[in-house]
Design a protein that fits this description.
single chain, mainly alpha, two-stranded antiparallel sheet
């Protein structure tokens, strides 16, 4: 086997130092031979191990915690034998409030960040004379 040096820097970051779209373009070809190349495998594993994995894990933890709160507040606590007891009713209220607050704050944060970014990069279109971010028009 002949030794070969592969330079993978620009498969991970572009010339400006931003995240490269190389993997997106490689998957867009639809060619399994390209995707099974050792360099593509190395780059995708490096990205998964360093960045993408933790982002995925945090989003799943957030989802499971929200699901547990939802199940407690909507399905489990109301069916408890002493559901008329004041402590159980306060627990139901607390679960429902936490569920709504945490999920709504996350959505508010995501949309505020995206709207701010769209206005900063001038990615807006006018609808009825009101500037609206393009990502909301998709």
């Amino acid at each position: 086997v002949r030794r070969a040096n592969y330079y993978v820097k620009y498969l991970i970051v572009d010339a400006d130092g931003d995240f490269s779209n190389a993997l997106e373009h490689l998957t867009g070809t639809g060619n399994p031979e390209v995707m099974s190349h050792p360099v593509v495998n190395l780059v995708s594993d490096k990205l998964w191990d360093s960045t993408v994995c933790w982002s995925f894990v945090y989003s799943r933890i957030w989802f499971v915690a929200s699901l547990v709160l939802f199940m407690l507040g909507q399905a489990i606590l109301p069916k408890v034998e002493k559901s008329g007891h004041v402590a159980v009713r306060w627990s139901i209220l607390a679960c429902r409030l936490l569920n709504y607050v945490f999920t709504m704050f996350r959505l508010l944060y995501v949309h505020a960040r995206d709207i701010f970014s769209a206005f900063r990069h001038k990615e807006v279109k006018k609808k009825l004379g009101i500037p609206v971010p393009e990502y909301l028009l998709d």
